[in-house]
Amino acid sequence: MPAEQNLNIVPFVSVENMMDLVLATGAETFLRELATYVEEDFRRWELFDKVARIASHSRDGVIELMPASDGQLYAFKYVNGHPKNTRSGRQTVTAFGVLSDVDSGYPLLLSEMTILTALRTAATSAIAAKYLAPKGAKTMALIGNGAQSEFQALAFKALLGIDNLRLYDLDPSATERCRNNLAGLGLTITACRSAEEAVEGAHIITTATADKRNATILTDNMIGPGVHINAVGGDSPGKTELHRDILLRSSIFVEYPPQTRVEGEIQQLPADYPVTEFWQVVTGQKTGRDSDGQITLFDSVGFATEDFSALRYIYDRLRGSNRFENLDLVADPDEPRDLFGMLLRRAAQPATSK
């Protein structure tokens, strides 16, 4: 929290601020610290006011609002998902978020969340794997080597000790970029020619493609006993990366069922198909992995509490920092009921050049 924050002045973390904050902290340390906040809020799950994200779908993508509150703080994220954007040199996913004080309703923080979403998604994936992946897992297949891929790789290295990475993407240049970006960071990296080759010998399989056309990335014959599948993907109705038969063989763990049944892999299954809410595993109410041969699937669609955790972490991380800008975001009249008078007093002031 910035020292002695004026209620009308809101700290803003720009993209540049966020990059500097991550680099100053160290990417892996940042991911570990962020994961602590995310896991802590999973333990407090029942305290949260929760709702599935509010989505506005179009032919080309989706724009969503993701709100959550623990009764003291409120957060929301604005986020889009437009796979076609890469053809025009734009990001598939962009986001920003707000953290507010419930007591007053005043915003406490405005932050970019394009980078922060990639970090919180990766941190959440690694937390799930901590509970669900086979013990001693060291090799991960990463299918889909787009903007999320390096963050996933570093999170699994930082939290689980993954040191062997097998990459595959339909676009070989994406795989090459990912391999180059991760060079020298302590990972043994193999570029593979197919998804089948990538999953050979992998203890964890992460799918992170942007396809929304019911494309099947993993078929049943590719999945052996004992693996953990981290299905990230571009979540929306019509998005599936796993063949239905894989789901029927797996123990399935989700964040918030009402959202996952619409946007996740389990949209392929009946609405009452049994799944386990991940927070129940974190709190010890339900079992995660219970046998060596069990196939576990984290049907990750990203949920608003994770964004809440990320914004809460950034707000705390700003304490004693100068990696933010002050925004005059909230009107602050001398007399709270005299908002129009504030406008009149402004009109009476000498004009300033712009």
From TrEMBL:
Enzyme class: lyase
EC number: 4.3.1.12
A GO term for molecular function: ornithine cyclodeaminase activity
Keyword Phosphoprotein: no
InterPro entries, per the entry: NAD(P)-bd_dom_sf (IPR036291), ODC_Mu_crystall (IPR003462), ODC_N (IPR023401)
Pfam families: OCD_Mu_crystall
PANTHER family referenced in this protein's UniProt entry, alphabetically: KETIMINE REDUCTASE MU-CRYSTALLIN
UniProt cross-references to NCBIfam families, sorted A to Z: PRK07589.1
Family per similarity comment: Belongs to the ornithine cyclodeaminase/mu-crystallin family.
Protein name, UniProt field: Ornithine cyclodeaminase
Organism of provenance: Endobacterium cereale
